[in-house]
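Thread: "does anyone have the structure for this chain?"

Original post by V.I.:
We have the sequence but no experimental structure in hand. Need at least a predicted one for the grant figures.
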Amino acid sequence: MARRRLTQMFPFLTPIRVWQRNVFYFIGMFLDKNKYAKKFCKEELPYEACSSKTLMINEESGFDIVYQENKVENLKIISKTMNHILIKPGEVFSFCLLAQKSKKYGKYKKGLVSVDGKIVPLVGGGVCHLSNLLYYTFLKSPLTILERHGHRVKSFPNPDKDSLEGVDATIRSGWLDLKVKNMTNQNYQIVISFDQEYMHLKILTDQDTKEIAEIKNEDFHYVKKDDKYYESVSVVKEYYDKNTKEFLRKEKLYDEVVLVGYPIDEDMIN
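Reply from O.Q.:
Generated one for you, tokens below.
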């Protein structure tokens, strides 16, 4: 029998536990000798290093569509905490460090969140949609990933049929962060924008580059084990000449295996 956490037995202690985790987490960041990106610049850097976009509304979530609409509002709030942030040489970008300023930009609504493998509506739910897009775009950039945590359970299919698998990044302030470090001699800048359907993200730089990169999936398949279904995929990075689009080389980044939390066709199982 799984051991229950203290906050599961006494839910009223949860805010205190969250406060405690955040205090110790940010003290740790203060002492870790990293220089964290905090400067914003409204003027955009001249060159695009890479860009991505993601469909915001997932009509296959299985929940009331209002939670998807609320998620869009939450994304617009949290994006303001990091839009136009500069990541200078030697600096570290921290999602959670910047996101803690969200209260100055609005009040979160209830969106969907994965808690102990179950999807529930909570205030602020859905902001990991931005961390997912950031992580995917960071993979295409020259920035170095320091910390990333994939979701333990994939709770519903991707809303965008062209989106990749295994490139998500869940966040929880005080527990899980998304961090990248600029180990180059160039400045980088994050620019986030929205249209009716998509959230767009660009990483700009002050020096033009000769190469561009694309992230792709290989060997995607489902596996059944102990009456549970898992999604398995390899994530690779392909480099191309920016001007000629000529393929240069390929690099395997990692393998990802995640528990699938929604029904899938038995014919798709290996």
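V.I.: this helps a lot. The chain has a mean pLDDT of 89.
O.Q.: and The two ends are 31 Å apart (CA to CA).
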